[in-house]
Amino acid sequence: MKAVRFHEFGGPEVLRLEDVPDPEPSDGDVLVRLAASGVNPTDASRRTGRMGQDIGFPAMLGVEGAGVVAQVGRDVTSVSEGDRVIVRQYLHTYAELIAVPEHVVFPVPGNLSLVEASTLAIIYTTAWAALCVRGGAKEGDTVLVQAAASGCGIAAIQLAKQLGMTVFGTASSAEKLEWAAQYGLDHGINYVEQDFVEEAKRLTDGRGVDVIVDGIGGDVLARGLGALARGGRLAVFGAAGGRETTVPIASFYRGPVSVTGAGAALTSPEDFRMILGWFGEGKLKPTIDRTWPLAEAVEAHRYQESREIKGKSALVISEDD
């Protein structure tokens, strides 16, 4: 089969389309012929070595995808050959075939293409974990989503609106904020032109927001504490803006406010099925900015790191749908 691999850490140019052996599924595995793979910031971090993992070379990328079941192990009962499925948070989806445990495959909603389905698993489970599992957001709350036009940002906006919340979001341009407004953003804050803390306070009549969903980290995280209402929660799932910051201890107990970490794995399979059900009902919308063929993974990674992307991008592996 064809797969994208890299033999050293580096920029997008280290990615190569190569011939590799087909995976051999075990009795409890599902062999999926992938139609597409989502492209995520974590793929770029893994490629550059920023994740600090001893991964061994040659290495493969990809943590989510969608395709058609090609074969099932004798112990598999939930899916059959020919079923359209999502592969959730499992390595090596930049490939034509993948063998995965049964518990990481989920049915694709009938109204979605496989390319659209390939982009849902990571951003929606991450956003759900930050918003609800760790952030404890509920109907009627006010939520501030940092980097509103990012994949996880737009997922958090849609989920928050689905649950009856008022959503503020930050972005670097009016264009990105206008785009996010199509998916439910109530109030956009251009952080280049406005102080997002002061604006969040103004929009809430000085109260502050109940929950902040933050994939930026760094000094943005530290400043965000000032935008929280009393008892507010900041859930951080990434560090695109910096892995370190300094926070005065008094910031926590004068509020009092809390900071908590979130990740996609915290979203249960049951909650992910519920989210997919909302897609099936048309209550949530996939947000694909661009797609590339698998052979152009280098260009996909360049775009991912350009800061121009809105929502998600995908690698198209086959035309099955």
List keywords for this structure.
16 strands; 27% strand; 26% helix; single chain; six-stranded parallel sheet; alpha/beta; seven-stranded mixed sheet; 321 residues; 10 helices
Quick structural gist:
By secondary structure, this protein is α/β, with parallel strands linked by helices. It has helices at residues 41-48, 114-117, 121-134, 151-162, 174-181, 196-203, 218-224, 250-253, 269-280, 297-304, and strands spanning 2-6, 16-19, 29-39, 59-60, 65-72, 84-87, 97-101, 105-107, 142-145, 166-171, 187-190, 209-214, 228-236, 258-261, 288-293, 312-316.
Percent helix range: 25-40%
The helix/strand class is alpha/beta
If you average the pLDDT, what whole number results?
96
- The H/E string reads EEEHEEEEEHHEHEHEHEHEHEHEHE
Q: Give a count of the beta strands, DSSP E runs of length 2 or more.
A: 16
**What global shape is seen?**
globular
Radius of gyration from the alpha-carbon trace, in angstroms: 20 Å
Helix run count: 10
Largest sheet: 7 strands, mixed
Poorly predicted spans? none
Question: What is the terminal separation in angstroms?
Answer: 19 Å
Q: Quote the beta fraction.
A: 25-35%
Plain-language structure description:
The strands form three sheets. Strands 3, 5, 6, 7, 8, 15 and 16 form a seven-stranded mixed sheet that branches. The protein has a six-stranded parallel sheet with strand order 11-10-9-12-13-14, with helices on both faces. It has a three-stranded antiparallel sheet with strand order 2-1-4, with no helix packed on it. Helix 8 (250-253) links the parallel strand 13 and strand 14. The chain is α/β, with parallel strands linked by helices. It contains ten helices and 16 strands. Helix 3 crosses helix 4.
